[in-house]
Design brief:
Layout (H helix, E strand, L loop, with lengths): L17 H31 L6 H5 L2 H27 L14 E7 L5 H10 L8 E8 L5 H11 L4 E6 L5 H11 L4 E5 L3 E3 L3 H6 L7 E10 L6 H23 L10 E5 H12 L2 E2 L2 E2 L4 H11 L3 E12 L5 H24 L7 H34 L4 H22 L7 H12 L3 H7 L10
Parallel strand pairs: 1-2, 1-4, 2-3, 6-10
Antiparallel strand pairs: 4-7, 5-10, 6-7, 8-9
Length: 452
């Protein structure tokens, strides 16, 4: 069973009265801008002092400095472009009870314990017409008491859910495949068994499918066990930035690259077109068991269909509370990311319409090279600091500046003091998580899920 345990179904929004929220947002925004200005002025003063100049950089690797400045300018340009897209994003209004299409909600579960009951009940109690809602839950060979909780819910809501049980664990991909085959709805929504949807989520997530060009929709994922420790609080900030900034920008050119496993919706006709290819996918001779959500998103995009983000379709999911669990989660994600990034850039991107294709080419080129440069620049920084320890404060200031910038975006979604965890997360990622991406790239053929 997960190391985060089961939690209650209470919502974590902690909404503030409108006026207080506005004042807090304004105060935090001004504070963040003031810190940025102070740090910039301090950095400029230090660099103006010859005794603190980067003498090592100024001699043998001057071209590297020029290249770094040019690349930073491109990244800032991309950030500005995404900011414009982000600011102009508006979610589709939720569907009405009259316009809601036939829907199948799929919940695969493995050793989830009591949390599966909370997940099921949240779907059963959602605001969606009962005569157009099919719920399928799959017990993927659980060895704990997951089946007992599923059975208890089935007894209470016998007409509302369809139950499948595997005698042995086959993996999430197999569970989803079996459920997709049995889905009777026009749209299928997948929800993780450690996640709880809000009441209006189903009506919201089906709304974009009124456009026949939409093949899949990404929901918004928030942290459910927010008060369980430092790691959940950091991930709360990271999730909001990932969804309410990154995916809003991607949604504007209809190229959301990954529909998350916690909450995603798919057009069933599109799923049936790619189901077997997705299930039997292999990479470097090994079956692909990591990143099934990103892989399925790639298959949908490869059909020429669009994927968009719906910010008013919200799910609250449990996240790791320990460092070991955090590493396992990111390792799974990065293995899927590396593999599917290669596939997307290799051939899927060329199947997109011309405008989304150009936007994706620019985005992916700058973003992917950024990953490589980040490790190279970090190595150069460490090497430089060995000869000139006086510049270490400048590097720390630079990292702090980079961590404060996302706060400005975060405050629009959540005007609270939790924005300070953005800086903490930046230092944590640099010190404790830097090794995961290169290790994932070197172990792409690994078949271990590392989930339990």
């Amino acid at each position: 069973m997960s190391d985060i345990g089961s939690q209650g179904i209470a919502c974590r929004t902690e909404a503030l009265p409108g006026r207080k929220e506005s004042m807090l947002r304004r105060g935090l925004l001004l504070g963040a801008l003031a810190i940025i200005l102070i740090l910039l002025l301090f950095m400029m003063g230090r660099l103006a002092d010859p005794s603190h100049r980067l003498s090592l950089w100024a001699s043998w690797n001057q071209p590297l400095v020029i290249f770094g400045i040019c690349w930073a300018s491109l990244e800032l340009g991309l950030l500005a472009y995404k900011t414009v897209l982000w600011y102009g994003y508006r979610a589709n209004p939720p569907a009405t009870s009259q316009s809601a299409p036939p829907l199948t909600v799929i919940i695969p579960a493995y050793n989830e314990g009591a949390m599966i009951k909370n997940s099921l009940v949240s779907v059963i109690n959602a605001n969606y017409p009962r005569d157009r809602l099919q719920i399928i839950v799959i017990d993927d060979g659980s060895t704990d008491d997951t089946w007992r909780y599923i059975s208890a819910v089935r007894e209470q809501y016998r007409d509302a859910i369809t139950v499948l049980r595997f005698e042995e664990n086959r993996g999430k991909k197999a569970a989803l495949r079996e459920a997709f085959k049995k889905a009777s709805g026009e749209i299928a929504v997948s929800v993780d068994s450690d996640s709880i949807i809000e009441a209006d989520t189903l009506l919201a997530i089906v709304s974009p499918f009124a456009d026949p060009k939409v093949g899949a929709v990404s929901g918004k994922v928030l942290v459910h066990n927010l008060d369980a420790g430092l790691i959940p609080r950091m991930l709360h900030v990271a999730y909001i930035l990932s969804f309410d900034f990154v995916r809003t920008a991607q949604s504007r050119y209809r190229n959301v690259y990954c529909c998350p496993g916690a909450l995603s919706a798919y057009r069933i006709s599109a799923i049936h077109s790619v189901l077997e290819s997705w299930f039997e996918q292999r990479f470097l001779g090994a079956s692909c068991i990591h990143g099934e959500d990103r892989a399925l998103s790639n298959y949908i995009l490869g059909l020429g269909l669009d994927i968009v983000y719906q910010s008013n379709a919200v799910v609250h999911t449990l996240v790791p509370v320990r460092y070991s669990g955090l590493c396992r989660m990111f390792l799974r994600w990065y293995r899927g990311f590396v593999r599917e990034e290669i596939r997307f850039i290799g051939y899927i991107i060329w199947k997109r319409p011309i405008k989304p294709r150009i936007a994706a080419l620019v985005d992916k080129t700058i973003t992917d090279v950024h990953y490589c440069l980040r490790y190279f620049v970090t190595a150069i920084a460490v090497w430089t600091a060995l000869f000139n320890p006086g510049i270490i404060p400048l590097f720390m200031i630079g990292l702090t500046l980079m961590s404060i910038l996302p706060v400005l975006y975060y405050l629009r979604s959540d005007p609270s003091w939790r924005c300070l965890y953005a800086s903490i997360y930046a230092y944590c990622a640099m010190i404790a998580l830097w090794w995961i991406l290169p290790y994932a790239a070197c172990t792409l053929r690994s078949r271990s899920w590392m989930t339990r």
